[in-house]
Amino acid sequence: MPKNKTHSGTSKRFKITGSGKVLRERAGKRHLLEHKPSSKTRALTGTVEVAPSDAKKIKKLLGK
């Protein structure tokens, strides 16, 4: 049987922790930052856990 390939777009966007949680970066911090308040751009910093409904689909794309 052939091996399943990891979805390359998904692998660049998501990370799976040791305990199996799926992490993602927050959206809205790439461009057009000049008119956004600094409080908003600071709030968008860091990683957050993916919603459980999406986590199952993402894990399948990553082959986990």
TrEMBL record:
UniProt cross-references to HAMAP family, sorted A to Z: Ribosomal_bL35
GO MF annotations in UniProt: structural constituent of ribosome
Entry superkingdom: Bacteria
Lineage: Bacteria, Bacillati, Actinomycetota, Actinomycetes, Kitasatosporales
Compositional bias (Basic residues): 1-15
Family, as annotated: Belongs to the bacterial ribosomal protein bL35 family.
UniProt-annotated stretches for the region Disordered: 1-45
GO cellular component: cytosolic large ribosomal subunit
InterPro entries named among the record's database cross-references: Ribosomal_bL35, Ribosomal_bL35-like, Ribosomal_bL35_sf
Protein name per the record: Large ribosomal subunit protein bL35
SUPFAM superfamilies: L35p-like (SSF143034)
Keyword annotations of the record: Ribonucleoprotein, Ribosomal protein
BP GO annotations: translation
